[in-house]
Amino acid sequence: MKDTVKKWLEEKQVDMFLGYKMVHGHALPYCFQADRLDEVDDLVVSRERYSLEKMATHIAAVYPEMKIGMLARDCNQRALKVLDIWDQLKKDSVTTFNVNCCPSPLKNHGDCSYLEPSPVGPVKVELGIDNNMSVEHAEHLDQKERFAHWMYEFSKCIKCYGCRNICPVCFCKDCSLEHPELIRSGGALPTEVPLFHLVRAAHMAGRCIDCGLCEDACPMDIPLRLLYRKVGSSVSDLFGYRPGIDEGKSPFNLIGDAPTTEPRPI
Amino acid sequence: MTQKKMTFLQELLGFVGLEDRLHLAWISSAEAQKFQKVVTDFTEKIRTLGPSPLARDYQKAVSL
Ligand code: SF4
Ligand code: SF4
């Protein structure tokens, strides 16, 4: 891996390479460049992950000509596909070095933080939502319980915007969660609960690639991934579209049905 | 397409326990009676459901 990255940089196949550098025992997102080639020796693949493609999107917005190299797991590859479809980061400007999410022979183990969810404690089980619950299970809770438990989770939110900021496919310049004319604020805090979470969930339709970074980032341990998984399963059932997997425009960046060349009755 | 998008929203709201409070109907500007009926029926339905649980202080529902 390191030799390939060095070669790419030396031969100017890429102008920069986004990966992780070991700094004092932490694998931090880092931009490797040709003028500091020996730093590539500190390039690591570990459990740590970050939306490198989000950094790439920001870089490409300022330097559209930049050829960006990037370390990519499966989730990064799905996100890149979505970003290309939504015209945020064209796929020609990114070269990926793909690494496996599941390097172990036991396929249920993953070399990343989300594939091994941690068990939740008794208080959360009683009052809130178990982060590891399946969408089907969560759908079948009784209505009162469902409402109370989700509100318990949402009401913990400290509006840090971490979930939005980490999300590789959250890219709008004007975020409706910060727009006083679009959404009512909750007094001292931005956007009230549960509108904050529902608006974000609705906006993830056709985009969320189920990387789970939002839930990883959430300091209040709100089961965001489960909520967005419901979004994903509804979008797949209703529109037959799975973001990051299926080719073509998402049903949410089309007005009306997808144009076809099929003749239609007049 | 609109119908699917609304169904999506209904499913999302239902997932967090806020079902049955969103309704979509096609009514042309020439269908005054249909408009009247849809609105009356939906108003009745909401009346039976009672005030939105969000209108109450949700902290109570949460039983912290
Ligand atoms: S799982 Fe979360 S962070 Fe990842 S794409 Fe979906 S909403 Fe964004
Ligand atoms: S990361 Fe969690 S606490 Fe922060 S805004 Fe998102 S849901 Fe709220």
Number of helices of chain A: 10
- Shape verdict of chain B: flat
Instruction: Quote the distance from N terminus to C terminus of chain A.
Output: 58 Å
Q: What proportion of the residues of chain B is helical, as a percent range?
A: 55-70%
SSE succession of chain A = HEEHEHEHHHHHHH
Structural class of chain A: alpha/beta
Overall pLDDT score of chain A = 85
Counting structural domains of chain B, the number is: 1
Beta-strand segment tally of chain A: 4
For the biggest sheet of chain B, the summary is: none
Number of distinct beta strands of chain B: 0
Approximately what portion of the residues of chain A adopt beta-strand conformation?
A: 5-15%
Count of discrete alpha- or pi-helical segments spanning 4 or more residues of chain B: 3
Q: Topology of this protein?
A:
The complex is a heterodimer of chains A (266) and B (64).
Chain A: H1 2-10, E1 16-23, E2 26-32, H2 52-62, E3 68-72, H3 74-85, E4 94-98, H4 122-127, H5 135-139, H6 143-154, H7 162-166, H8 195-203, H9 213-217, H10 224-239
Parallel strand pairs in A: 1-3, 3-4
Antiparallel strand pairs in A: 1-2
Chain B: H1 2-15, H2 32-49, H3 58-62
The structure holds iron/sulfur cluster (2 copies).
Task: Describe the 3D structure.
The complex is a heterodimer of chains A (266) and B (64). Chain A is 34% helix and 9% strand. Chain A has ten helices and four strands. In chain A, strand 1 and strand 2 (26-32) form a beta hairpin. The longest helix of chain A has 16 residues, at 224-239. Chain A starts with a helix and ends in a 27-residue tail after the last helix. With 64 residues, chain B is an all-alpha fold. Chain B has one domain. Chain B is 58% helix and 0% strand. Chain B contains three helices and no strands. The model of chain B has no long low-confidence stretch (mean pLDDT 86). The interface between A and B is medium-sized, with 34 and 23 residues. Residues 157-163, 217-220, 222, 224 of chain A line the site of one iron/sulfur cluster (SF4).
